[in-house]
């Protein structure tokens, strides 16, 4: 039996996904599926944070569409007295009703250990009429500015 590898791909039947095959110069064959998710290149990475983060743009001028936002926040330096890891709040204009929206993607956490973290993701319908933003609130450190945290946020357009 012979296999024909060409650069043309027929349309996939309804409910199916095309697999793309490729060969290298040595005759090895591999296959991949094109991702339906596009990282926007937008996100935020902050380390050594010792205070709340004010309203910050993740996407200044989004296109209308569906997005997934993934957030991770973790204590990196504990406070010997006490501390509270802040919550992360998202802000955007909804594509379907045009109204400003907010959502706490993570809660505050008073664990005060290096194992204290929060993570979550959110599925949002975002309008191009305003930016996608985030902020943190609820940071507390028994000894001022002693507790430090890292925060990582990724945005994908679906």
In words, what does this structure look like?
The chain has one domain: Jelly Rolls (Sandwich). It has strands at 20-23, 29-32, 38-49, 56-59, 65-77, 83-84, 87-93, 100-106, 117-126, 132-137, 140-141, 148-157. It contains no helices and twelve strands. The model has no long low-confidence stretch (mean pLDDT 88). It has 158 residues and is mainly beta. The protein is flat. The strands form four sheets. The chain has a four-stranded antiparallel β-sheet with strand order 3-12-5-9, with no helix packed on it.
Radius of gyration: 22 Å
Low-pLDDT stretches: none
Q: What percent of residues adopt helix (DSSP H or I)?
A: under 10%
Number of helices: 0
Summarize the structure.
With 158 residues, the chain is mostly beta strands. The chain is 0% helix and 51% strand.
Give a quick set of tags describing it.
single chain; 158 residues; mainly beta; Jelly Rolls; four-stranded antiparallel β-sheet; 12 strands
What topology emerges from the helices and strands here?
Layout: E1 20-23, E2 29-32, E3 38-49, E4 56-59, E5 65-77, E6 83-84, E7 87-93, E8 100-106, E9 117-126, E10 132-137, E11 140-141, E12 148-157
């Amino acid at each position: 039996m012979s296999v024909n590898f060409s650069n043309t791909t027929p349309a996939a039947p309804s409910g199916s996904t095309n697999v793309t095959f490729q060969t290298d110069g040595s005759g090895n064959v591999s296959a991949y599926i094109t991702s339906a998710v596009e990282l926007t290149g937008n996100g935020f990475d902050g380390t050594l944070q010792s205070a709340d983060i004010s309203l910050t743009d993740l996407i200044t001028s989004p296109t209308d569409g569906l997005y997934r936002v993934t957030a991770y926040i973790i204590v990196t330096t504990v406070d010997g007295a006490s501390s509270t890891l802040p919550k992360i709040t998202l802000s955007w204009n909804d594509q379907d009703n045009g109204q400003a929206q907010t959502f706490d993607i993570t809660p505050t956490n008073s664990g005060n250990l290096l194992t204290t973290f929060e993570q979550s993701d959110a599925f949002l319908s975002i309008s191009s009429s305003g930016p996608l933003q985030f902020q943190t609130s609820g940071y507390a450190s028994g000894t001022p500015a002693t507790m430090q945290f890292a925060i990582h946020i990724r945005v994908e357009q679906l």
